[in-house]
Write a structure and sequence with these properties.
With 443 residues, the chain is of the alpha/beta class. Helices cover 46% and strands 17% of the residues. It folds into three domains: 103 residues, Gyrase A, domain 2, CATH 3.30.1360; 142 residues, Four Helix Bundle (Hemerythrin (Met), subunit A), CATH 1.20.120.430; 158 residues, Rossmann fold (3-Layer(aba) Sandwich), CATH 3.40.50.300.
Length: 443
């Protein structure tokens, strides 16, 4: 089948790009233009017509990419027309009339590029991440993965394991022959080095995943402390409803922010209190769950009634900033138990000290995002394969030391397989759907 899709953004635009890929891509160009194919990779101005009536649809640019020198590795074409909805629909309607043509599925062009060996699986994922990038940090990370450094490291580790496996299988095939002492030592040395390197990669504080998905901040605290007002102030827009009525927020309200290039997901949660209302109780449970999974908690309290016992004490134990709201109403000295915590006094009503709170948040972000050039994991999928690889290598070393070579070899095969699945060097059909479904149509 030959596939086609709108590859530029939907909606009205100056230019729209229709992408076509497959063995009949050339047929579409000749039918639409009534002329021979243009020279490869040369922009050619052509009239684009209705296939049956030759009625003009638009005048646009045709670029022809014969395979395998194309993005997908197949014959491919891009048609650039004016970006009106009617033009795009008319052109897609004409393509649908051609035999063996169909609309592309999400990510199908990039999936074809992977299946035809144009890119590895890590590069395919980085394409999706680059399109989705909202901050400079996310863009830089996606570009770094796209350059292929991560794939080279994982490929190198896998090649080491396959070489070790060849020694072990030689011993299995010729049990009467003793492996040279230096080979035995090399097996242990190389497999230990690979295991140590994988453990080092895993010990990354999940920075790559946080950059890709966003640093999670949960605003938590009792009712009527000013949590929704804080979300609106940080977002600089009215995201949440603000009311004097306690318990107004009953669900988690989430928004994405770009704080100095750092990707942040900030959540306003239901006020935590004893409640008999079933809906509010569910909201409170969601609040506590969101706080538990957050990278940072902003615990908001009312300066007039600070009580840090119970759940507040638990929330403040780790990864938390105490935000004392309505500080303009404070009279006298505060409890030393409050001031010894990492805290900031603010007045959301009078817009006091919000800059100090934002500075504290930025300091936490900078601390969390202290990175080096060796961050390789950007998705939970990568992490799970590396964890399994580490477990298999640990088992291999134990069985190999006991000279249980048959079972040791199987653990080594599994370890190499998990590394191969990260970059797509082994059968990964079962995970392709979940990866490429995250793409936009036309990519």
């Amino acid at each position: 089948m030959t596939i086609y899709a709108l590859s530029s953004g939907p909606g009205i635009s100056g230019v729209a790009i229709i992408r076509i890929s497959g063995s009949d891509a050339s047929k579409a160009i000749t039918l639409l233009t009534g002329k021979p194919l243009p020279s490869p990779r040369v922009a050619s101005l052509r009239k684009i017509n209705n296939i049956n009536t030759s009625e003009l649809i638009d005048q646009g640019i045709i670029i022809w990419f014969p395979g395998p020198e194309s993005y997908t590795g197949e014959d491919m074409a891009e048609i650039q027309v004016h970006g009106g909805k009617a033009i795009v629909l008319a052109l897609q309607n004409e393509l649908s009339k051609i035999e063996n043509f169909r609309l592309a599925e999400p990510g199908e062009f990039t999936k074809k590029a992977f299946q035809n060996g144009k890119i590895d699986l890590l590069k395919a994922e980085s394409v999706s991440d680059l399109i989705s990038a909202e901050t400079e940090m996310q863009r830089l990370q996606a570009v770094k993965i796209m350059k292929g450094k991560s794939a080279k490291i994982f490929d190198g580790l896998r090649e080491k394991l396959l070489k070790i496996l060849s020694f072990v299988e030689a011993k299995i095939d010729f049990p009467e022959e003793d492996l040279p002492h230096e080979n035995v030592q090399q097996i242990k040395k190389d497999s230990t080095e690979v295991l140590d390197q994988i453990k080092k990669i895993l010990d990354d504080q999940k920075v790559g995943e946080i950059i890709r998905e966003g640093f999670k901040i949960a605003i938590v605290g009792p009712t009527n402390a000013g949590k929704s007002s804080l979300l609106n102030n940080l977002s600089k827009r009215d995201v949440a409803i603000v009311s004097e009525i306690a318990g107004t927020t009953r669900d988690v309200i989430e928004t994405r922010l770009n704080i100095d290039g750092y990707p942040v997901i900030i959540s306003d949660t239901a006020g935590i209190r004893n409640s008999k209302d079933e809906i509010e109780k569910k909201g409170i449970k969601l609040s506590l769950d969101r706080a538990e999974n957050a990278d940072l908690k902003l615990v908001v309290v009312d300066a007039k009634s600070i009580d840090l016992s119970g759940f507040l004490n638990d929330l403040l134990k780790e990864n938390a900033i105490l935000v004392v709201n309505k500080s303009d109403l404070i009279e006298g000295e505060l409890d030393p138990e409050v001031t010894k915590l990492d805290h900031v006094f603010v007045s959301l009503k009078k817009n006091l000290n919000l800059d100090k709170l934002i500075l504290k948040i930025k300091d936490r972000l900078k601390t969390k995002f202290i990175t080096n050039e060796d961050i390789l994991i950007t998705r939970e999928r990568h992490r799970q394969h590396l964890v399994h690889c580490s477990d298999n290598l640990t088992n291999f070393l134990e069985k190999n030391s006991k000279k249980d070579f048959d079972k040791a070899a199987e653990d080594l095969r599994l370890a190499a397989r998990h590394l191969g699945m990260i970059v797509g060097k082994v059968d990964v059909e079962e995970i392709l759907g979940s990866i490429f479904n995250d793409f936009c149509i036309g990519k």
